[in-house]
Structure formats: C-alpha cells, structure tokens
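So, can you check this record?

>
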Amino acid sequence: MTGLLAWVTLGTALGCGLCAGVFFAFSAFVMPALGRLPSGQGIAAMQSINKLAVTPAFMTALFGSALACAGLATWGVVAWGQRPAPGCSLGGVLYLVGTIAVTIAANVPLNDALAATRSDGTGAADRWRSYLSRWTAWNHLRAAAALGATGLLTVALQLG
C-alpha cells in the first residue's frame, strides 16, 4: 500500500479512532455522571449535549470517516488478493455497520424521543432511566466498533 491509498487509510483510521474516543468518553464517564444528576437536570443536560453535538467538526469526523470507510471497503473487495484488502474491507464495514448504522437506527431515535421529553413532565424520571440504559448500551457498541475499525485499518496499513 503506497501513496494516496496509504494516506487515506491512515486518515480514516485516525478519524475512526477519534470517534471511538468520543464514544468511549460518553460510555466511561459522561453518561454515568449525567445518571448521578436528578432526572430533570440529566434530561436537560443531555438535551443540550445532543443539540451541541451536531457541529461541523464532529459531523465531519463521524461521516467523513464513514465515507472514507465505504471507499476503503469497496477497494478491499476489488483488490481482495492484496494483503491489506481484508483489513480495509472489514474495518470499513465494521465502522459503517457498528458505528453509523447504530447511530442512525438506535442512538438518534433515542435522542429524538428525549428531545420531546419535558424534564419536569410526568414519567420523565422513568423515561430518563430507560434512556440512560438503552442509549449507553448502544453507545458501548459504537465505541467498540469504531475502535475495532481503527485496529483493522491500522493492521491493513502495516500489511500494505
């Protein structure tokens, strides 16, 4: 692996690793900290985080890495006989499925439901406990998938 392909693989691995770190931070201490707050405060804090998370920098890291993963996965299928190809394909698919698809199918709908929740409304505390548990479980998966993709892409880079 030389030239442009090596640089794309390196940049993609770094992007996946960056996203893994963000998700890990949420799983390791942000969500547990929010869970220690009274439910109304936790809901309000997470609603604010969810609004502020949609920044150009984070969206570029998250979805730019996804676009690059799609390209590397495709290259890996086409060039399957080359040593780095399986790592590129598997790493790309792992990120796309375990990070992007989970974000779209699980975390975003949970965030949307939380956005419609009044922090002082009836049943808010129960919805918050359910949200914390479900959102964090899916986030663990996103963190693991992004980290796994980082590892696979790094191995592919070494094999190239």
